[in-house]
Amino acid sequence: MSYNSSRQIYADTLASIRKDGLYKDERIICSHQGGEVKVRFPAEAPEKNMINLCANNYLGLSSHSDILKAAHEGLDKRGYGMSSVRFICGTQDIHRELENKMSNFLGMEDTCLFASCFDANGALFEAILSAEDAIFSDRLVHASLIDGMRLCKAQRHIFEHQDLNDLEQKLKAAKCRMKLIITDGVFSMDGDMARLDEICRLAEKYDAMVAVDDSHATGFIGKTGRGTHEHFGVMNKVDIITTTFGKALGGATGGCVSARKEIVDLIKQRGRPYLFSNALMPAVVYASLKVIDVLSSSTARRDKLEELTKFWRNGLTDAGFDLKQGNTPIVPIMFYEAKLAQEFSRDLYNEGVFAVGFFYPVVPKGEARIRTQISAGLEKAQLERALEAFVKVGKKHRVLGVKKEEITARYS
Ligand SMILES: *Cc1c(COP(=O)(O)O)cnc(C)c1O
């Protein structure tokens, strides 16, 4: 079928996405990333100052002056690009330095850098598991883990979200050589933490390995920000951590697998996104080294984040919003209906608050929400203003103190 004939099919698909209220329009940011940003929406509208509640900029490091300075230094000292994958001629001294520093920070034996955590998760499973092995994964793990698992031949057992009885049944029943349990450390859509203490206990009991994707935790979860394994006191029990530099750790780009030594070795031999994709740019490596230094020298940023998060959760709860429970800086406010979440987000925008709606296919149908994320780059006064806006818009849409059933009934 030529494009002229196919075009109608694509146009129809797009029209049906719009009709269901599921079309995602991008807001255009015309400033640095930060607690307050300049936004244009729609794209041709004038710029507007907005309080930003939807970046993964948990520690406020995306535009931090020390980090920018380090990136500039990287450019000056090691150039712009590597024009090579790591194993041909793309490994500089600083790449190894960052790998060592990450291993140290996370308490792991060795680390392998990737262009993204999406790539790290794409490399992991195929490199270390084969058809005789089995993976046990939480139903709600990140899309990149799901894709990574699809690329490997191991059996795949999916346990219900955070249901450790279900995990135990599946571990008990499986017939295989190696077992690997995989979970997100913090789940990005619900903001809940995996029970890593319990998962590690089951892993010991059933002779399994544990892998955690800590993209929404590295840098700020745990007393010194090492991640969910620190939070649950199992730093020596987790075998594999994958994480990103694209969120709390400066927010540019890059990811890694930090793991037992042989696992990292194998990934460097076999991981396809490692072997066939370019090395991380030196400026990003320099800036990431600086980020780890900043976080290792003080917990001030993660402590501030924890405090602001408490303020935000309590404020919304007291106002009568329906929150997903948890204790991470991911604070989802439930609206259930995609259209309501979209309209609410649009009204917040008019009040100077930037918080986008999430709906199918990013979350299940009927589970639409606005996901707010707190950042150490925000100040309490900004959160107070944001709260006022939420309450104003909440009254308009009659959602304060209102239960799920009542909201869904309005749309049926
Ligand atoms: C964001 C995220 C990723 C992808 O990270 P990138 O470095 O942006 O590719 C992977 N896993 C989880 C759990 C994430 O939240």
Structural account:
This protein is an alpha/beta fold and 412 residues long. The protein folds into 2 domains: 27-56 and 299-410, Alpha-Beta Complex (Aspartate Aminotransferase, domain 1), CATH 3.90.1150.10; 65-297, Aspartate Aminotransferase, domain 2 (3-Layer(aba) Sandwich), CATH 3.40.640. The chain is built from 16 helices and 14 strands. The protein has helices at residues 3-19, 65-78, 86-90, 93-106, 117-128, 143-150, 164-173, 196-205, 228-231, 261-270, 272-275, 282-297, 300-319, 338-350, 380-396, 404-411, and strands at residues 28-29, 36-40, 48-52, 110-114, 134-138, 155-159, 179-184, 209-213, 240-244, 255-259, 330-336, 353-354, 357-358, 368-373. Helix 2 packs antiparallel against helix 12, helix 5 (117-128) packs across helix 10 (261-270) and helix 13 (300-319) runs parallel beside helix 15 (380-396). The longest helix has 20 residues, at 300-319. It is globular, with a radius of gyration of 22 Å.
What is the fold's blueprint, element by element?
Elements: H1 3-19, E1 28-29, E2 36-40, E3 48-52, H2 65-78, H3 86-90, H4 93-106, E4 110-114, H5 117-128, E5 134-138, H6 143-150, E6 155-159, H7 164-173, E7 179-184, H8 196-205, E8 209-213, H9 228-231, E9 240-244, E10 255-259, H10 261-270, H11 272-275, H12 282-297, H13 300-319, E11 330-336, H14 338-350, E12 353-354, E13 357-358, E14 368-373, H15 380-396, H16 404-411
Helix pairs in contact: 2-12, 4-12, 5-6, 5-10, 13-15
Give the strand line-up of the largest sheet: 4-10-9-8-7-5-6
- Helical content stands at 40-55%
* Ligand catalogue: pyridoxal-5'-phosphate
Radius of gyration: 22 Å
Unreliable runs: none
Number of domains: 2
Order of helices and strands: HEEEHHHEHEHEHEHEHEEHHHHEHEEEHH
Structural class by secondary-structure content = alpha/beta
Instruction: Please name the CATH architecture of the largest domain.
Output: 3-Layer(aba) Sandwich
| CATH uppermost class of the largest domain | Alpha Beta
What general outline do the C-alpha atoms trace? globular
